[in-house]
Design brief:
Elements (H helix, E strand, L loop, with lengths): L2 H10 L4 H26 E2 L4 E2 L1 H39 L2
Antiparallel strand pairs: 1-2
Helix pairs in contact: 2-3
Amino acid sequence: MNTKTAKRWAQTRVQGKWGFTLCRGVLAWGLPVGIITGMIRGFNYSTLQISYAHFMTYLLLSMVGGGLVFGLAAWYTAEKEYQAYINGRSNR
């Protein structure tokens, strides 16, 4: 992590773990992935229509399940790098 990235993360981490996870994981990652997955998996090729139930199922699974996992993984990875950067600077 460099100084620019550390400053940006210091501003981002003010949101807190759950705010970051909601914004970056559930909404920024889970929503688009859920829409794409829901459209692909919910599409009925014989009638050329999208099943609303399948679409909503995949949308919610991607947003809640995938988005939470992605957001928390991103948070812990960035926080670990930030702490290593801060500790490395204080040891100099």
